[in-house]
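Hey, I'm writing a tutorial for new members on how sequence and structure tokens pair up, and I'd like a real worked example in the thread rather than a made-up one. If someone can provide the structure for the chain below, I'll link this post from the tutorial.
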Amino acid sequence: MSYSLTQYTVILFNTGEFHFVIRQAAFGIFSILIMWYLAQLNPDIWLHRIGLSLFIISMFLMIVMPFLPASLVSEVGGAKRWIKLGGFSLAPVEFFKIGFIYFLAWSFARKLGHHGGMGLRQEFLRFFPYAVVFIAVMFIIAFLQNDLGQVVVLGLTLLFMLIFAGSSMKFFTTLMLGAFGFFAFFILTAEHRILRIKSWWSIAQNSILQLFPESVASQLRVPSSTEPYQIGHSLNAIHNGGLTGTWLGGGTFKLGFLSEVHTDFVLAGIAEELGFVGVAMVTLLFLWILQRIFKIANRSRDSVHYLFSLGVGLLLAFAFLINAYGISGLTPIKGISVPFLSYGGSAIIAAAVGVGMVLMASKRVDLDEKRSLE
């Protein structure tokens, strides 16, 4: 797919036809080696060191990036998100997500537990330090890097990890409502996000408003956009693919209609060329990966290992769902890549680090089970 979906991109950027294939293959092989190497390490020693190092170093890099000169960082849309390392650009936020998940798992295991019938006020007091940390993270990612999508993924992961760490459903529901309020605030404070919501709504409104009385629907309806928005072309690509697709190389919407289709819109490209069957195979493979991660979490006796493995699985699952919902028009586009599938070195390497750390934790699971049998 890296070869087929970049037919237009290689011409646009005047690169060799195998440019993206070779780079992604190199990232993929390197990621496999990372997973294998991390799986060999002792989790009692290295899991904590690697997890907190990712959290601290990547957060520091995200804070200082806006102040670095243009020769050291790449700027897109006024936001500095990548650090230049020779011919490679590093996105610290991808590694921060893994470090943040470990920080939460480590801290939740030490500070939280079953709510034991405590009141909502006590649960909020217990959660307050984490709220301060997350608000700081939201400011860094949403404002300094202009990347609200990553905040959504991290926020959802945090909320669900709280439930498995022992918080009450009432507290979870209250936080969820508060998260919607913060989300609305971040949208209303940025004009480009408001325009993105409007463009999505102009396409999605017909299927949604038919459920409401006409008196209500008329108040919510906005004029349909005539501009070639990404979501419109994404839906057309999915429709054009049908059941079995146009097969490799036969897609047309990758030819300049869907910009960078090999990154955020890779699922739309697969849907057009491999059809529903291809998307179903990708989804089943992804579900199998998640099943293995959650199985490791379920077997873990160590609370940190349990919560971290669970968090990595949730992080990957939410990224996949948000991207899939976005390209199919169910939600606005968030700019979230598909784990292990979208083109990009930082994303695939960071995901490999997360899965490698889960495999490292699984060594402790196997050792504990052997001891219990003895």
